[in-house]
Design a protein that fits this description.
single chain, about 850 residues, Collagenase (Catalytic Domain), Immunoglobulin-like, 8 domains, 10 helices, about 10% helix, elongated, disordered N terminus
Length: about 850
């Protein structure tokens, strides 16, 4: 016997049962338990829990199953809503309470659908439910609390568990918390499994403020109180989840045939049942698809077993937050001061007649004191006084004083009884015309009120039964209490229409829509699977037994309803789904499906399952398989076959690349996504330096689903240019032409120096980088350049210093005895900046107010002339 983890015990991720139109997840407790485990909210293991459970069940069974005690659980409903349609009615909640009490007490009407072989183990669990009458503070309540959330709120399981539950939960030791919400994700419901035994070292099932069950609003209660359509609108989601809340596992144990639900009277099953296939065999025996802990649709579920009852009662006796529910006062109305109220059996009687009085006081009075002035007797201390006789004419008051342990209340009603002369005329008018199939009703048109009726079909002095009276006119007599006179009138009972409504006993779920017919025509059809056009849609009804109704109203106003029981046969389960991928070059493939013997169809497909991929062509193709079983029901499956064409490779233009260029990302082939190889290629990147100078072949391979193609392209790696500097006079020049140039001074790039020649502005080490065909050279060797600041002409000598000048101030020095010199200074554009004639040994020249750059000093004396370059830094 394999034991499942408690974290994945309780409920129900429905990945395979998905109604095509609804995408329903039948139960989410397994995922909820897993999430709580991952968040560290529970640490109790399944082995520890089941060991404790086995011990407690053994003790319980030795007590001969003390089932005489009924365990009543107080329930509070937390209604979470955004739009009004999600704010379910009180009637829908009351309907859910009815379903819970019927299912757990086996009072449900559909017990007749329990197969004969399972009936010996069917059980009344002895667990019942009540809507809370008092809140945790002891105040009165109806057990229904409503919370309005903003439009757009997403009720995910994490939002409900982490935010909503802690903020709204009532004490889980005293109440079963039921949260009703428009849950996202198609989830119908989930529960929190009970805490274990309190074994040493265990903390049990997690935080109390998340304990309870959660239900989708459309799954609560049953029609007509539940206005939502579908196969999960019968209130059985709550029955299923409360089963988990009380310790039950899924009927198939959440595993294969080797996994148990620890209940010996539930047959082993290999998986969940999603319909009502009553003869389905999985693990050598017929599955108990009717069990509340399976995944069947609501109208199929109808049984808890004896062993399941044992588990739930053991939990109610021993498990924390379950055992305490048995002593909760949640179902007991809080004691309040009573509010007195009553009514009399008649408002008028004749002298000598008698009345009875009914107490209608609120808040549970325990004592009553009546005063009847003028009557015999004139007082009483019982709750419902009878035979109060009035002998004298007049109007009389009645006083009621009620009390309990909290206090008293007094109600005085004046002129509540009128006593008339016993010769007063009694009248009976306005008796209705009714249908023979109408329900019994109380006659009330006699005056004065409170008298007795007699006649065909009348019982209890006022109740008329049309069926007992029969069709025709019936004389009804009325006599007021104590009055000597009486009156009579006729009451007419008319016939109900006789209907004929028939349909085939069974029909396949895949059958076409059936237009229903009955006689007399003109009525309306209803039932699971019936649409507004009076048509029965088997797929909407779902597999299993379903009852269809025909209601007709005759011209006389009488209505009748006839019904027809139809079994919708489940379609055979076809195993043919998923996706297969092929290259078109494969040619033909053989499709397979089970059960065998069906028919295949689709592009390029023959009926026996041969598929010609070339005929189908490249693309995504849906292939269908249809199988008809012995009943004629057809099951259909489909899968996707993706046919891929052999790819055609193309390359974007790829020019030559310099051996010193950066690495090249190879992404110029189409279709992309393939792989490159070749000299200098690694991880989709081409390294020209690694490849070296020359021509290199790069190979590219791409393809999917076995369709591969390979092509190649040649890339040229050329040698990098060489940079060399030569001097021309006072300028520097690249030794060889190139596409682009960049000059450097002392390792720093000279901004704007991008020509083949460059006129230095200062002394230093110059370098050059040239670019040719987008390939840059290495830097040239250093070229040391310095200006000539002394010019010698024959025996004469003129010198300038400092040159270059940092601040623009220079000194012109003449050799002793030199002739007078006239000089002028111009910028490179020929504009005169400064001029002077001097024969001084030293003459100051001030260019501090001029911009940095190169200037020319031209000098002339009586015999010679010359030019000196001045550099203003």
């Amino acid at each position: 016997m394999r034991i499942l983890s408690l974290a994945v015990l309780a409920c129900c991720f429905l990945s395979t049962l998905v109604q095509a139109q609804e995408n329903i997840i039948r139960c989410f407790t397994v995922e909820n338990e897993q999430a709580r485990l991952q968040q560290g909210q529970k640490i109790e293991t399944d082995a520890q829990f089941e060991a404790w459970m086995a011990q407690k069940i053994a003790e319980y069974q030795r007590m001969n199953r003390p089932e005489q005690e009924v365990y009543t659980i107080p329930v509070v409903f937390h209604i979470l809503w955004r739009a009004e349609i999600e704010n379910i009615s009180t009637l829908q909640v009351m309907s859910q309470m009815d379903v819970l009490n019927e299912d757990f007490g086996r009072f449900n009407a559909d017990t007749v659908n329990t197969p004969l072989g399972f009936r010996p183990v069917a059980s009344n669990t002895g667990v019942q439910f009540c809507l809370a009458q008092r809140d945790p503070q002891g105040n009165p309540t109806n057990g229904i609390i409503r919370y309005n959330y903003p439009v757009g709120t997403s009720f995910s399981t994490s939002f409900i568990n982490n935010t909503v539950k802690p903020a709204t939960s009532w004490n889980p030791n005293d109440y079963l918390n039921v949260w009703v919400a428009p849950m996202s994700g198609g989830i119908l419901g989930y529960a929190q499994f009970p805490t274990g035994s309190g074994l040493p070292g265990l903390t049990g099932g997690g935080a109390g403020n998340t304990d309870g069950i959660v239900l989708l609003h459309t799954s609560v209660g049953r029609p007509p109180a539940n206005p939502f359509s579908g196969i999960y609108n019968g209130g059985r989601t709550a029955t299923h989840e409360v089963g988990h809340y009380l310790g039950l596992r899924h009927i198939w144990g959440d595993g294969g045939c080797g996994v148990d639900d620890f209940c010996n009277d539930t047959p082993l099953s290999d998986a969940a049942n999603y319909n009502c296939a009553v003869t389905h065999v999985s693990c050598t025996t017929v599955d108990m698809v009717q069990n509340y802990m399976d995944y069947s649709q609501d109208n199929c579920m109808n049984i808890f077993t004896l062993n399941q009852t044992d588990r739930m009662r053991v939990v109610m006796l021993n498990s924390p937050r379950r055992a305490s529910l048995r002593s909760s006062l949640g179902c007991v109305s809080p004691i309040m001061r009573p509010d007195a109220g009553f009514f009399a059996s008649a408002d008028s009687i004749c002298t000598g007649g008698s009345l009875s009085f009914a107490d209608t006081s609120n808040n549970a009075p325990t004592t009553w004191k009546w005063y009847f002035p003028g009557a015999v007797p004139d007082s009483a201390v019982v709750q419902q006084p009878t035979a109060i006789v009035y002998n004298n004419l007049g109007d009389y008051s009645v006083t009621l004083i009620v009390g309990n342990m909290v206090g008293f209340d007094t109600l005085v009603r004046n002129n509540v009884v009128r006593v008339l002369n016993n010769s007063m005329v009694t009248s009976l008018n306005n008796l209705p015309t009714v249908c023979v199939n109408d329900s019994s009703f109380a006659l009330s048109s006699g005056l004065p009120r409170g008298g007795a009726y007699a006649g065909p079909g009348v019982s209890g002095g006022a109740i008329f039964n049309p069926a007992t009276a029969g069709i025709g006119q019936h004389l009804i007599q009325y006599q007021a209490a104590g009055c000597a006179t009486f009156d009579t009138a006729f009451l007419t009972v008319v016939a109900a229409p006789v209907l004929q409504f028939s349909l085939v006993d069974s029909i396949c779920i895949s059958a076409q829509t059936i237009t229903l017919s009955a006689s007399p025509a003109g009525g309306s059809f209803s039932g699971n699977g019936v649409n507004n056009n009076g048509q029965f849609v088997p797929a909407t009804a779902g597999s299993g037994l379903t009852t269809l109704y025909y209601t007709y109203t005759a011209p006389n106003g009488c209505s009748a309803t006839d019904s027809q029981l139809v079994r919708v046969l489940a379609a055979p389960v076809v195993n043919f789904s998923g996706q297969e991928n092929y290259c078109i070059s494969v040619g033909n493939i053989q499709l397979t499906a089970s059960p065998s013997g069906g028919i295949f169809s689709g592009p390029g497909v023959s009926v026996n399952g041969q598929m010609n991929l070339v005929t189908a062509g490249p693309g995504v193709h849906r292939v269908t398989y249809s199988f008809s079983d012995a009943t004629g029901c057809i099951g259909v499956g489909s899968k996707i076959v993706v046919v891929t064409n052999i790819p055609v490779i193309s390359f974007a233009p790829l020019g030559p690349i310099c051996v010193l260029a950066n690495n090249l990302v190879l992404n110029f082939a189409s279709p992309q996504g393939g792989s490159y190889s070749g000299n200098g290629v690694q991880f989709g990147i081409f390294n020209p330096a690694t490849a070296g100078v020359g021509q290199h072949t790069l190979r590219y391979t791409t393809g999917v689903s076995g369709c591969q193609a390979t092509d190649s392209v040649v890339i040229t790696v050329f040698v990098a240019p060489t940079a060399e500097i030569v001097r021309q006079n006072d300028s520097l020049r690249a030794a060889r032409p190139a596409a682009a140039y960049q000059w450097f001074l002392n390792q720093q790039a000279i901004i704007g120096a991008s020509g083949r020649s460059y006129a230095p502005l200062e002394n230093g080490n110059y370098q050059l980088v040239v670019d040719s065909a987008s390939c840059s050279s290495s830097r040239s060797a250093n070229f040391n350049f310095f200006f000539t600041s002394v010019e010698v002409v024959g025996m004469q000598q003129i010198s300038i210093y400092p040159n270059p000048s940092e601040d623009g101030r220079f000194t012109l020095a003449l050799k002793d005895g030199q002739l007078a010199v006239r000089f002028e200074i111009t910028d490179l554009h020929g504009r005169k900046i400064f001029s002077q004639e001097t024969n001084s040994a030293q003459t100051n020249i001030d260019l501090s107010n001029q911009a940095s750059g190169l200037y020319l000093l031209r000098w002339v004396d009586a015999e010679r002339s010359g030019v000196i370059r001045l550099v203003r830094k």
